[in-house]
Specification:
By secondary structure, the protein is α/β, with parallel strands linked by helices. The chain folds into two domains: 215 residues, Rossmann fold; 92 residues, Rossmann fold, CATH 3.40.50. The chain contains 14 helices and ten strands. Strands 1-2-10-7-8-9 form a six-stranded mixed sheet, sandwiched between helices. Strands 5-4-3-6 form a four-stranded parallel sheet, with helices on both faces. α9 links the parallel β7 and β8. α9 runs parallel beside α11. The longest helix has 17 residues.
């Protein structure tokens, strides 16, 4: 399947993953609702297998491989969470996995991939450097390259986040989604818009890496400079298939400051007793920065996408 996924693909993924990944909790946030004027719910994907939503798309993809493809093994590049998700999914099926990560990847994410049995290679200072090396390895080894976001099987798996939430809360009026390469927001948009066409889908990126927001505003792919972020899983390139889905289904983007990301991580720890990485806290940061005023009075879901944060960084955020 090289086309954009549809609701049927998300439903198929949901059935495939049932009982093998966690149906994560959705919790109403009284404090954030009071601050923002919206009825805010948070889906705790930090409690997912491997600590992030990435396990969904990874397992859906590995399950979709033929026996011959599984024997050849899988290769990917990742800023961390996809590395752990694919390592876990490959190990579950006995598939050899090689993961290439940039030097900036947090140690907790590197350790997670190694513990799950993947061959871990650290290469380059950015996700783009790691991805270039991973493609070369896949070609040299004849392995299957599993893209971390620009793959319809990945997108369909990530879309099960929205399907779960809407089965529990069919009256949601908006979903606020952290955005890196676009796999999660694409899957959520495909599922949510098919179920509830009036629902609003809003992507959140760090100000220092807002390539998707710029491309969305332009209506086509544009290049913008980007720097490292406290939301370390989000900076980098964007997917062509993801952009196609986003331009068709997503309503808006907003960009948050680095200070607001750190403050949101600490806020989530204090008010909800949840350890959330910077990438998973940008939705909360957007509310607290006053970027989502048009959602006042609406029932809104945001996704805390992962909890794989280094202890030293987490402690530093709490002391701010």
């Amino acid at each position: 399947m090289n086309r954009a996924p549809r609701l049927l693909d998300v439903v198929t993924a949901h059935r495939r993953l049932r009982g093998r990944v966690r149906t994560t909790a959705v919790e109403a946030s009284g404090p954030l609702s009071a601050e923002s004027g919206a009825e805010v719910l948070i889906k705790w994907e930090n409690q997912q297998v491997t600590g992030s939503f990435k396990a969904r798309g990874a397992l859906n993809t590995v399950d979709s491989l033929s026996e011959a493809e599984r024997a050849r093994g899988v290769v990917t590049a990742s800023s961390g969470n996809h590395a752990q998700g694919l390592s876990w999914a490959a190990a579950a099926q006995g598939v050899p996995a090689t993961i290439v990560v940039p030097e900036t990847t947090p140690e907790t994410k590197k350790a997670g991939a190694r513990t799950l049995g993947a061959e871990l290679i650290v290469r380059g200072s950015s996700y783009d450097d790691a991805e270039a090396h991973a493609w070369t390895l896949a070609e040299e080894r004849g392995a299957v390259y599993v893209h971390s976001y620009d793959d319809p099987r990945i997108i369909a798996g990530q879309g099960t986040v929205a399907l779960e939430a809407l089965l529990e809360h069919p009256d949601l009026e908006a979903i606020v989604v952290p955005v890196g390469g676009g796999g999660l927001i694409s899957g959520i948009a495909v599922a949510a818009k098919a179920i509830s066409p009036q629902i609003r889908i809003i992507g959140i990126q760090p100000e220092v890496s807002a390539k998707f927001g710029a491309s969305f505003a332009a209506g086509h792919r544009v290049d913008v400079p980007y720097r490292s972020s406290w939301a370390d899983g989000l900076p980098g390139d964007i997917g062509e298939l993801n952009l196609q889905v986003v331009l068709e289904h997503v309503d808006d983007f907003a960009a948050v400051s680095e200070d607001s990301i750190a403050e949101a991580v600490a806020w989530l720890a204090r008010h909800h007793r949840q350890m959330i990485e910077g990438s998973g806290a940008v939705g909360v940061a957007a509310f607290q920065q006053g970027l989502l005023e048009d959602l006042r009075g609406k029932k809104v879901l945001t996704v805390a996408t992962g909890g794989n944060i280094d202890a030293d960084r987490f402690a530093a955020f709490l002391q701010r």
